[in-house]
Amino acid sequence: MSELRHPPGTFDVLPADSAPWEGLIRAFARVVEAAGYGLILTPTFEDLAVFKRVGESTDVVRKEMYDFEDKGGRHIALRPEMTASVARAFIQHRPPLPWKSWYAGSNFRYERPQAGRFREFHQVGIEAFGSADPDLDVEVMSLGWEFYTAAGITRRELLLNSLGDGTCRPAYRALLLAYLESHRDELCEEHQIRLEENPLRVLDCKKPACQKVVAGAPRQLDHLCDDCAAHFARVKNGLGALQIPYTVDSKLVRGLDYYTRTTFEYAGLGLESAQNALGGGGRYDGLVSAMGGPDTPGVGFALGVERILLAVEAEGGTDRLAAGRGLDVFVVDFGGSGGDAGRDLTALLRAAGLRADRAFDGRSPKAQFKAADRSGARLALVVGPDEAAGGTVAIKDLQTSADQVSVPVADVVAEVRQRLG
Ligand code: AMP
Predict the structure, then answer these.
(1) Looking at ligand 1, which atom is closest to the CA of residue 81?
(2) Residue 286 and residue 412 share a domain
């Protein structure tokens, strides 16, 4: 029988490696909850229509979706992104506005697996519904920026653009289409065929042929209506006030169709360009109504957890994120009580809020000390025959070679706390 393995494009994170993941999500929650965002949970799969309606012309929805008919005959899709699910939940439950939520979870896209690109990947993100105020765009962008700082990523860049809205985008789209049509035979093969479907897509095509044509294309930024121009000016003003550096990039269009006005991306400067997109987002004032809900503006972002960890790694490692996640103490008991002393001491330590583990199976002192070393705990608490007879516990620092000291059982918790600082 062949060995069972995880599917291509997926991975396992074992307990020894998961501390940075936990640290990252904790850091994210701290940053966004301080600004009024609350955790939202939505199903991992949705009715296919939830995603179909919002991204008909995108690769994510057209080619990469994991969709299937379930045993009840429903057409289901594993979520390829979270914004559409959050919008669906908003429409279903109609919470009072403004409504701010954050999430952490996995998404599924049938892509070609490669470094930093998976078929199941993880995102953290926020969505804010119910305000068209450009200051909210700035709040959202600044929270992403602040989170990267908290995660230890300093080499990152904020790219900013405006996609206009229903007033100015149609005219710009026509202008762009006319320009691209006049250069059709210079475009990449795919865009020669699919140009009309969504000419904006050509702007962020990575193929050199398209990039050459795009260099001379009209820019949406030069064709914004007065309201969109004022919105964009206020966004730039707000970023300036918060001293968040940004680069205007007129070629920045997001992969999904529902974005209006502000669109942005965070790039990691320490990563290869193929995987340097750390996250992105924007304003999606048309999304809720496109999904059949009441006309409701919204803005948000999604950040790729795997990419963020790569960037943290490139900037000196994930130790800081993992800090504080390990064991405090490991209990070693060969005092002859049949395991009672170790059992009771471990319970006492855990009840006091310390992170404690112990050896089982009445193993030899040597095997127990080996387990203590491997556990990563700072301290070993040892109950040998002498300690058992005297009602004491020996404390051994596993990270220095300092002599062990004995303390009465009643003083153990206080002594451990003091040593842990
Ligand atoms: P998107 O919704 O495509 O803008 O994705 C937002 C972020 O999620 C990107 O900037 C990446 O950091 C991350 N991401 C998207 N697709 C993948 C993938 N297949 N594997 C890993 N990370 C991804």
Answers:
(1) 2
(2) no
Compute the distance between CA of residue 127 and CA of residue 32 in angstroms, rounded to an integer. Answer: 11
Q: Which residue, 294, 320, 346, sits at the end of a domain?
A: 320
Question: 406 and 378 in one domain?
Answer: yes
pLDDT band (50, 70, 90) for residue 322: confident
Query: Do 281 and 403 belong together in one domain?
Result: no
CB 339 near ligand 1, within 6 Å? no
Domain containing residue 387: CATH number:
3.40.50.800
Asked if residue 178 belongs to a domain, the reply is no
pLDDT-derived band at 2 (thresholds 50, 70, 90) equals confident
Q: Which atom of ligand 1 is nearest to the CA of 254?
A: 4
Is the whole-model pTM more than 0.85? yes
Pairwise CA distance, residues 211 & 201, whole Å: 11
Structure tokens at 84: 């559409």
Order of strands across the sheet that contains 379-383:
356-358, 329-333, 379-383, 392-397, 405-408
- Looking at ligand 1, which residue's alpha carbon is closest to its atom 17? 117
Distance 173 CA to ligand 1 centre (A): 26
Residues 130-150 pLDDT 10s: 999 999 999 999 999 999 999
Q: Could you tell me if 297 and 335 lie in one domain?
A: no
Q: What is the crossing angle of helices 340-351 and 412-420, to 10°? A: 60
Cβ(278) to ligand 1 under 6 A? yes
- Express each pLDDT in 7-65 by its tens digit: 999 999 998 889 999 999 999 999 999 999 999 999 999 999 999 877 776 778 888 99
Q: Is 279 in the pocket of ligand 1 (CB under 6 A)?
A: yes
Nearest-CA residue for ligand 1 atom 18 is: 117
Ligand 1 pocket residue status of 10, Cβ below 6 Å: no
User: How many domains are contained in the chain?
Assistant: 2
- The answer to whether 381 and 393 are in contact (CB under 8 A) is yes
Report the separation in Å between the CA atom of 292 and the middle of ligand 1, taken as the mean of its atom positions. Answer: 26
Residue 269 shares a structural domain with residue 164: yes
